[in-house]
Structure formats: structure tokens, C-alpha cells
Write a structure and sequence with these properties.
The chain is of the alpha+beta class. It has helices at about 1-15, 20-55, 80-95, 105-115, 145-150, 165-205, 210-215, 220-260, 270-300, and strands at about 60, 95-105, 135-140, 155-160.
Length: about 300
């Protein structure tokens, strides 16, 4: 009988405040959708970093005969074979180095042609303009500074370059987008909480006579508050369900059916990341409105 009464009160409250309940559902759905998207974007950035950092190399470029006039660093002309052999031997002894591959100027020119063969800049470079180099694969890509400090000032070395520098701006952009999504999510969350509090206040005010009678007949405060708390929890849970639909739909439409077919060089997150986020979204959608309603009732439910 008590459960039936509580359920009937929930139905009455939801119908009386249909517009505000709908606003709560939409606000919670958008805020939690952004929350889930930000978590997935963070996983995407981590996945991309692990994928690309595992592939990038540290390049030790040697002076060639065309560098003699460019400055003191290569003022003595092209690097000698002895200088290359000494550097190769030292690289092989370093425990952070996984492997070292030599790339001649002819091989570098071949890779250049493969990359820019159909563009106007393809004919601007000749093989003798490209330096020989060692492509150094590190066990830990973050140890790049060890290679740079050890070899950048060595005779015959033109430059030590970390290929991470070319992809770091992309990660910075994605991290910035993630921060922006979190800021918007926080604003939407504040809006949702304010709507929940106002909805509870309106609902409590419209039923102050019923709650007063319940108090007179000996109902406990928790029993009086329960319908209001459950109303907020149900609205929040519906919003969380819609947020899950948005997250799954975004993964399916945006990533699987669009980006994955157009950007083949990026390893995108899988469904396991999405499935891991959904329970958290549902839990927050259920608990956040219920707690907001509980604390709002302590102040605004006067019977």
C-alpha cells in the first residue's frame, strides 16, 4: 500500500511539472552526454599517443656537403664515415635505444618523392640536398632529451629531431577541445542542478497540503520526501539514458561511419571504451538529481 502511494505521488508530481521535468531531462542528457564525450576524447588522445609515440623515431641528421656554408655547426663539411660509425656504436650501447636504422640521402629522397610526388614541391629538392640520418627507435619515447643532449653537439651532426614535435600540436588541439567540452559540461550541469532544485521546490509547494496531512498522521520525513527524491531520480535517469543514446550514436555515426573511413592513419577508440563509460553516466544521472532533491527538500519542504 505504501509503495503504491509513493508511486502514485511520483506520477502526480511528474504530470504537474511536465515542462520543468522535460527541461531537467534535456539538461541532464546534454551535460552527461558532454561528460561521456569528454571521457571518450581523453581515451582517444591516450590511444593516439600510445599508437603514434610507439611509431615515431628520433632522427640524427648528419651534415652533408651542401651544409658547409650554412654555419659553424657544419662548417667542416659533410660528416665522415668514422663520425657516423662512432655515433652508431654509442647509440647501440645506450639501454634506452631499441634499434637504429641508417637512412641515406638517396633513401630519404625516395621517401620524399613517395610523399610529395604529385605536388608542385616535388621537384624543388634533389637527393644531395637531403642529409643522411640515423632513425633511432627508443624503448621510451619520452627519453628523447637523452639523445638530443648526447649527440646534438657532436661533430658532423646537423640536428637531432624528435618526430613527436610534428604531432604534438594535434594532441594539444584535442586536449584543448576536451577542456572546452568539460567547461560546457560543467555549465550544463549547473543548469541541470538549478532546474532540479526549482522543480523540487515547485512540486513541494504545489503539494504542501498533502504533505501537511501526511505529517499530521505521523508520516516520517523520509517517507514524505521519498516521492520528490524519486521524481528527480527518474528524470535524471531518463536524461542519462538519452545521454547514453547520444554517446552510442555519436560513436556509430561520427567515428565508425565517417571518420574511420576518411582518416585511416588514426587508431580510433573501440566499443569497449564506450561500454566502460555508459554505467558511469547512468550512475551519475541517477544519483546527482536524487542528492540535489534531498538537500533541496531539507531547506524548502516546510510542512
Amino acid at each position: 500500500m505504501r509503495a503504491q502511494f509513493v508511486l502514485s505521488e511520483i506520477g502526480v508530481g511528474l504530470r504537474r511539472n511536465l515542462t520543468m521535468t522535460f527541461a531537467v531531462i534535456v539538461s541532464v542528457a546534454l551535460s552527461l552526454g558532454l561528460f561521456g564525450a569528454s571521457l571518450l576524447m581523453r581515451d582517444q588522445v591516450s590511444t593516439m599517443k600510445g599508437y603514434w609515440y610507439d611509431k615515431v623515431n628520433v632522427s640524427v641528421f648528419f651534415c652533408n656537403k651542401n651544409d658547409a656554408a650554412t654555419g659553424a655547426k657544419c662548417g667542416k663539411g659533410a660528416a665522415t664515415q668514422q663520425q657516423k660509425d662512432d655515433i652508431k656504436a654509442e647509440l647501440d650501447r645506450l639501454p634506452i635505444v631499441q634499434n637504429v636504422q641508417y637512412e641515406s640521402s638517396d633513401q630519404a629522397y625516395k621517401h620524399y618523392k613517395e610523399q610529395f610526388g604529385d605536388t608542385p614541391v616535388a621537384g624543388l629538392v634533389t637527393p644531395d640536398q637531403l642529409p643522411d640520418s640515423f632513425r633511432v627507435k627508443l624503448k621510451d619515447p619520452t627519453k628523447y632529451e637523452v639523445i638530443k643532449s648526447a649527440f646534438s653537439e657532436r661533430p658532423g651532426v646537423q640536428e637531432v629531431q624528435d618526430q613527436r614535435d610534428t604531432i604534438e600540436p594535434l594532441f594539444n588541439l584535442l586536449n584543448g577541445m576536451n577542456i572546452a567540452a568539460l567547461v560546457v559540461m560543467a555549465l550544463m550541469l549547473v543548469v541541470a542542478l538549478m532546474l532540479i532544485v526549482n522543480t523540487v521546490r515547485v512540486s513541494a509547494f504545489s503539494r504542501r497540503r498533502e504533505t501537511g496531512i501526511m505529517r499530521l498522521v505521523g508520516a516520517s520525513s523520509f517517507y514524505i520526501q521519498m516521492p520528490f527524491i524519486l521524481e528527480a531520480a527518474i528524470a535524471g535517469l531518463l536524461g542519462a539514458v538519452f545521454a547514453c543514446v547520444l554517446i552510442v550514436g555519436g560513436k556509430w555515426v561520427l567515428i565508425n561511419n565517417w571518420l574511420a573511413s576518411k582518416i585511416l592513419v588514426i587508431k580510433f577508440i573501440g566499443w569497449d571504451s564506450v561500454v566502460a563509460v555508459l554505467p558511469l553516466v547512468l550512475l551519475i544521472g541517477l544519483l546527482m538529481p536524487a542528492l540535489a532533491a534531498f538537500f533541496a527538500l531539507r531547506k524548502y519542504l516546510k510542512v
